[in-house]
Amino acid sequence: MSTQIKAQAEAQTLRVRSGDVELAVKVYGDTRQTAKQPVVVLVHGYPDSNHVWNKVVGPLSARYRVVAYDVRGAGESTVPTHTAAYELEHLVADLAAVVDAVSPEQPIHLVAHDWGSIQSWEAVSTERLKGRIASYTSISGPSLDHAGYWVMQRLRSAAPGEIAKVANQLMHSWYIGAFHLPLAAPLAWKLGLDQLWPKLLERFEGIRGESAPTQSSDGQHGVNLYRANVAKRLLSPRERRTSVPVQLVVPTRDRFVSLELLEGLDQWVDELWRRDVAAGHWLQLSHPELVVRYVSEFVDFIEGGEEPAALHRARVRSGRKPGNNKYAGKLAIVTGGGSGIGRETLLSLAEQGAEVVAADIDLAAAQRSAELAELLGATAHARKVDVGDAKAMEAFAAWVANELGAPDIVVNNAGIGMAGNFLDTSTADWEKILHVNLWGVIHGSRLFGKQMVAAGKSGHIVNVASALAFAPSRMLAAYATSKAAVAMLSDCLRAELADQGIHVVSVCPGVIDTPITGNTRFVGVSEDEQKRRRDGAKKLYQRRNLKPQAVSAAILKAIDNNRQEVLVGSEAHGARLLSRLSPKLSRRLARMELSL
Amino acid sequence: MSKGWDPAIADLDGFREAQQLAYRCAEAIADELTPGISERETAALMQHWLAANGANDCFHQPFAWFGDRTAFRGFIGFRHFGGFNPAFYPGSRKLEENMPYILDCAPTLNGYTADIGYSGCIGENRILDKLMDDLLEYRVLILDLVKQRKQLSEISQAVDRLCAKHGYEPRHKAYPFQVLAHRVEKLDADEKKHRSVLNFGVRNIGKLVGDMTKGRREGWSPLWSSGHASDHPPTPGLWAVEPHLGFRGVGAKWEELLVVTEEDAFWLDDDVPQVRRWLSRGLEPLAKAA
User: Fold this and answer.
1) What is the ipTM of this complex?
2) Tell me: the pLDDT tens digits for A109-157?
3) String of b and e for A436-455 (b: at least 16 CB within 10 Å)?
4) Considering the entire predicted model, what is its pTM?
5) Shortest Cα distance from A337 to chain B (angstroms)?
6) Do the chains contact at B167 and A347, CB–CB below 8 Å?
């Protein structure tokens, strides 16, 4: 907050003339026009004024010259009375006047929100500012022309699913219709909506803030933006293409703009990036640090810097077959990714566009998985990690954060097997299995969960448990206990992370034929007997013939459908049912000693 | 056990000629393949080529598989009918650019039978290239373990493990009886054209059945797989070895005759397309070992 206040104190205020209106412009940071710093111009939406950027101008102005102005009708700028004065071409002319005044030579980086974003689309795709805009970061405001085409294309397709999307968007846009009613909206603002506004924001969007001094007037006059443009553009949209690099920052819980509206945007934009944030409409108020980071990364890259991994991943690549690209732009981490279920899940994610990290205690195996993922066209990494080692996992998580950015999908899969009587299981045995099976999941969930929250990612944490989590057995005390703990941890974590939109799923496979069977430790028996039992178990698992592919398919389905728990194999379903319908019988069966 | 088998030089030359004929056929037809041709048309081309070049019998008539059929995904992967599945037979699948294919033929020339597998594609396929590169390790591993006189089932399991390490599926498990290899025997040389039933050569299958009967008595099997029937040391004779790897929708294989004698073992011929390919790709150190 202190930097922000300081930055504001340093703001230089200008009045810029555009036709017959005068715009109030604030310039932060190094205000000299000769300064070589990149210039960032912020354009606010409705019913806001330049105050809406208060939380981001401070940090941004430490590195850039930052310009925020009140669009016509808002804040300290002139308020035209005719609706026609709010048409997009006038708004673009206003922006051009500001750019001419603050950065006559150097192209500027445009950052815009809501109606600011709508008018900025017009600015980047028309002649007036050609060559003057180096990059454009758009938050929550689609081009009306793109939207017009979007609606037309969907209605013409006559497919029920597509028409439903249009209906959905119309429901998101109820307020636009309301704004067209004579008197209603302006009257609401006059009658004190401005006083209520901060409370509404807090109640519905979780944002605390003070009311801008001109809130009532901004609300009353900004309605003209809708009246002057929406119907006209939606009903007869014009082609609006741009070669300006565009970064879309998409709040996925936006109540006012539906995500579907952004489908197919790559047909209009040559170079497009997209970052999703699990947040509401006013991202610069709820997640100012994220907005600062995204804008900085993009501006620095466009100015000739490196493209950070997270930004690179966010590039929207057209041309890949749709449906085969579901996880494009997502980063997935799989522990135990060198074999079995882990490798299979890693490859399935890679096959559908995800960038993947294979973490495994066996580096060669992880590297092999990464190599296979690359063959499938993915960017892939391999790391040697002992998942139960807190330090090693912290170092691994730090590497991920620095090199790749926060993950979207984390599959805590690494596990070891152990069988035998409880009384034969030594402390060392217990420590060994809990180290991998439980601590591995704790570290993975904790470290990457934190990264997801900080990055506003509505990510997925997939914890691989087992059907034994709810099917007790005298022969598998250690293993079943470790997996039951994983299932419970997942249930608790799911509850905690639900507010952040992070999905937690526990996966409970039955008898799956993976390399784990060949490495399972049988406690309390001789080496020879251990080998005999391993072979016996291996055979049983092979006979069952349920492959890791079945689990990876279930994991992907769980990710796509936000499932809480998935069972794989009829034995898993049977055990689940039994544990619920007749826990007594389940416990009785636990006493059976199966000879392998 | 067929003790005292000592391959006559003349016999080995005969088998080598048959194997070279089979590979020449695969290479000749591979050169002719163009997008749009079907598996059935391709198999027929191979059949004509072999007949025109002196083959008068076969272990099986030529097979051709295109696209994901090279990886035998789906139904054929099940164990129905002891692994025997009609999806084996060439179908109507048409070849496309960058699509992997496998040509497999087993001609008999002058009573000597070969059985070969040949992988390729028109254009480029990175996965196929990787599979074909990695197939080298299997050639080295199998010969090495046979020389050590390991049990055949053990060797087949070692192949399964190498597949798991590589992240591939051992798709030879989709062959009848899940065989990694099968025996071939010398037939009587003649000029007659011999019959096939369901695309398999009657005389060669007869020999195989004879081997099975004999093997059951002597404790070995002419069908080399990971199962208990192959719990025996390498049986002297000629084995058509065919590791077949699958990864996602892409499959690749080679198939060659392995000569097993009382004390030793060697590949019948090192001048085969896959070895030449490994050499040309600089996988030489390993290729030398092979």
Assistant:
1) 0.90
2) 999 999 999 999 999 999 999 999 999 999 999 999 998 898 888 888 8
3) bbbbbbbbbbbbbbebbbeb
4) 0.84
5) 11
6) yes
